Amino acid sequence: MKKKGILERLKEGPVLGDGGYLLELEKRGWVRPGPFTPEVAIVYPDALRELHIEFRNAGAEVLQALTFYASRDKLATVGLEDRVEDINRSAVRIAKEVAGDDCLVAGNLSLTWMYEPNSATAADRVRETFDEQLRVQIEEGVDFIIGETFSWLGEALLAVERAKKTGLPVMVTICFENKDETAEGKNAADAAKALLDAGADIVGMNCLRPPQHILGPMAEMRRAVSGYLACQPVGSKTPKTKPDFTSLPEFPYALDPLQLTRKDMGEYAAQARDIGINYIGSCCGSVASHVREMAKVLGKLPPDDRIWKKGGAKPMSAFEYYDHDKEEVKK
Predict the structure, then answer these.
(1) CATH no. of 6-305
(2) Residue 22 in 3-state DSSP?
(3) pLDDT of residue 330
């Protein structure tokens, strides 16, 4: 039986995305901090496979191939420009293996760091970069394309342009740094309209900001457009004065104390659903426990039916001893 595509699933209700890959794999020692390039897909594929399994088992309905930063110029910074095809191909194959018949697999394009406004030469370079990755991802059979983390709306529009040529559904999301606007000064509503007008099937925001600082602009998008919206915030707390977590002095080595709780991410999932977000995912710093809590809130996981016989009059765990089980019932 053929899997339902992303647009079919969105018609039926919110779709739950996965979490963050590069930062989590960096914490586990498989991605180098600084460049954050995804050569783990060929250097130690089992580490990537395991993280996909964790997200799948947590309830994610989409697994993103780890092809973020798997572009020629970005890989050249670590001497791997000749491994573009190998990394993209391996990343998609690993995601597809884990996805099986349940999850969809999204190809992935990311910011290139080469875009320049009003530069035809730079735009063509970005197009070539996207096309090189897309060719391999399409050959490996991704289900749809996600383009993400674009501070420049202009670059996001190029991602729509190239991804639409594949004939697959296209989701493209922008990101806001420390101001509530794109690099060229467009607000959330205008950016959403522009992306949808360009042909994107799903638009929204991802990365840089936690739920607290991303849901406001997402609500502006929802008021402005009727199309499918996607939201994928980071899993780290940030102050109002510096909502972009990459601008904090704690990035990337001391983010641990800033990590959101699973309860925080569950509350985000509920708020996103109530705003009218259709694709509810997460990004850097979001791990399987976060995704699992989001899945529970969105009704994506069945109740835990494992047997647990409590100790009767005598507590058999600190969970019972301190009445945490009663708190669980209150929820």
Answers:
(1) 3.20.20.330
(2) helix
(3) 52
Instruction: Indicate if the alpha-carbon torsion angle 91, 92, 94, 98 is positive or negative.
Output: positive
- pLDDT < 70 positions in the chain: 327-331
The vertex-223 CA angle with 168 and 170, nearest 5°, equals 10
The 10s digit of each residue's pLDDT in 27-64 is 999 999 999 999 999 999 999 999 999 999 999 999 99
Report d(CA 71, CA 40) in Å as an integer. 14
C-alpha span between 64 and 45 (Å, rounded): 15
Residue 27 makes CB contacts below 8 A (sequence gap 6+) with: none
Letter string b/e over residues 68-88, b meaning 16 or more CB atoms within 10 A of that residue's CB? bbbbbbbbeeeebeebbeebb
Q: Which two tokens stand for residue 308?
A: 């647990």
Which positions ≥6 away from 199 have C-beta within 8 Å? 160, 161, 164, 170
**What is the pTM assigned to this prediction?**
0.96
Distance CA(58)–CA(40), nearest Å, equals 22
